[in-house]
Amino acid sequence: MNSLLILGGARSGKSSYGQARIESMAGDLTYIATAQAFDAEMAERIAHHQADRGPRWHTLEAPLDLPEAVAAAQHGAVLVDCLTLWVSNLILAERDCDAAGEALCAAVADCRVPIALIANEVGLGIVPDNALARRFRDAAGWLNQRLAKTVDEVVFVAAGLPLFLKSEA
């Protein structure tokens, strides 16, 4: 595996699947986190994820500057969790999601170590009833499509089970 995009719904098992795939690699492991703890519940979620990872993991926090973090993480193997929160962060910070997505695709294409990226598939539900939610859904969907073209492998996880959408050539 060189590059992998893991998609799924909330609580689908995508993060556990991604962590297991990266932990199967030898050497150092880098976890690039995009989450920000704006409330106690999110802080608890972040702490749970941190406790679940072992001492092989080094964490980089990149709530906005994800392409730069991917470019900097050039040893061992890398897990990015999660792109959906990153898109939300970009929108709230009034950043250009298209330009950031292009920069991320370039960083992933240039990455010399195995990398797995996790994202929610948000386009399976109804059309959101407000402009901000539609903008978010559209930006997340376009990013997933761009990355699916960039990476070697794409897996959709549902109920903890992987469905392989694109395999390494």
What's the assembly state of these chains?
A: single chain
The description of the largest β-sheet is: 7 strands, mixed
CATH topology: Rossmann fold
How far from one another are the termini?
Answer: 10 Å
The count of β-strands is: 7
| Helix coverage percent | 40-55%
Rg calculated over all Cα atoms? 15 Å
User: N-to-C SSE series?
Assistant: EHEHEHEHHEHEE
User: Given the helix and strand composition, which structural class is it?
Assistant: alpha/beta
Mean pLDDT: 93
Pfam family, one: CobU
Catalytic activity: adenosylcob(III)inamide phosphate + GTP + H(+) = adenosylcob(III)inamide-GDP + diphosphate; adenosylcob(III)inamide + ATP = adenosylcob(III)inamide phosphate + ADP + H(+); adenosylcob(III)inamide + GTP = adenosylcob(III)inamide phosphate + GDP + H(+)
Active site: 49 (gmp-histidine intermediate)
Binding site for GTP: 8-15, 33-35, 61, 81
